[in-house]
Give the backbone structure.
Amino acid sequence: MFARTWRSQGPGVRKALAFARKAAVDRTAGKEAGCHAIRYCSIAWHRGGSLFIATLCSACIVLFASDAGAQCTARDVLRNHLTLKRTPSAGMPPILVRSAAAAPVWRTIAIGTFANSFALRNALDAAGCGIGDLAQEILARPAFTLRTARTEVELIAVSAAELGFQTDTVSLADIYARAQQLGFGLAAAEVAPQLRLQYFDQPMGEFLIGMEPIKTWKGEPVILTVANGGAGLVLIGQDGSPYAKIPVASRFLFVRSDEAALARAALGFDEAAALVRH
């Protein structure tokens, strides 16, 4: 739509819009810019072009707002990568995890901060986070539920290799069974999209899997993955069947089993309370 509008304008209008867009980009890059810096906003206003200038200045505001709100775009990923300059750890040997109790907390996030899945998806869109087709479907499924009260969740990131697997790939069922033996529990499905919104400094090449599988409308189990493939921060879905083959370098997000049990109990209470209210 913007492209059609751009082509339909005269040369002077296109020049002004180009200047406005450049100002928005400069502002994102740390340069001072604004409608007061655009001569069309100061001169043409007094020449009777108030409607066009008002529209132009509105375009400036929209561009600034979208740049300020977006955190998942490829440009943001590149900026974070250059700023953080993280050292790749792919060559480091895995450290075996003996128990969930001894495993360090990787990150603490908040869940239960959205009224419904629509608000959650709108927040992902506003942040510029890409959502894959399978992930979109899972977020719309009735089985995808949200906590009704804000709760802090401690996540533990563990690879299949750190769970003791030495083959190139391992089945999802075996990974979950080993994790359960060590005292880990599966994170709630809400954790994945919430982490996407709270983990904008994710390093390139990292894919984090973590949730109980949820079935699509066709009955296929899917697990959500929080990923940074280099072209932007995304939330995608992948095969969540027990026989799905997972590379041992893949990292999973777990909670401690006692916390998982408490979360399930609380979620059941939330659902019961919702039924009573209706």
